[in-house]
Amino acid sequence: MFNKIKKIIFYLIGTGFLLSNLSNIYKQAGILLSAKGKNKEIYEEIVEMERENREMNRQIEYATSSAFINRQARESFGLGTEDDYWLEIPEEEGEIDLFPETNMDQTRAKYEEWLDLFR
Fold first, then answer.
1. What gap in Å lies between CA 66 and CA 62, rounded to an integer?
2. Cα 99 to Cα 57, 81, 83, 105, distances in angstroms
3. What count of other Cβ atoms lies within 10 Å of the Cβ of residue 24?
């Protein structure tokens, strides 16, 4: 009888250890899967940052180039090179009429104008 109780206790303890180990394995698998997902997200962020870094380096190279400096001098200060030709257009004297008068007869009603159109 004592051997039987001893076996039952042994099996219960063994089953407890087995269930505990299986639970730990399940938790570890979940942690590994979530870590893989986070690694993938971080890798995608790294790739995006490297792309942005290359783009910024390209912009820095252009901003320090002579072509950019010449363009900024032209746009900001109106400066040019020896080969540039500038055309000065004199401003017109007097006022410009932005709303010229039209030749519409305002004394007649619209229906009369329509009737005259079809007569």
1. 8
2. 52, 41, 41, 17
3. 10
Q: What is the dihedral of CA 103, 106, 112, 113, to 10 degrees?
A: 20
Q: Which of 63, 86, 88 is nearest to 74 (CA)?
A: 86
d(CA 108, CA 66): 67
DSSP collapsed to 3 states, 15-28? HHHHHHHHHHHHHH
Give pLDDT tens digits for 14-41: 999 999 999 999 999 999 999 999 999 9
Answer whether 0.70 is exceeded by the pTM: no
For residue 91, give both structure tokens: 């401003």
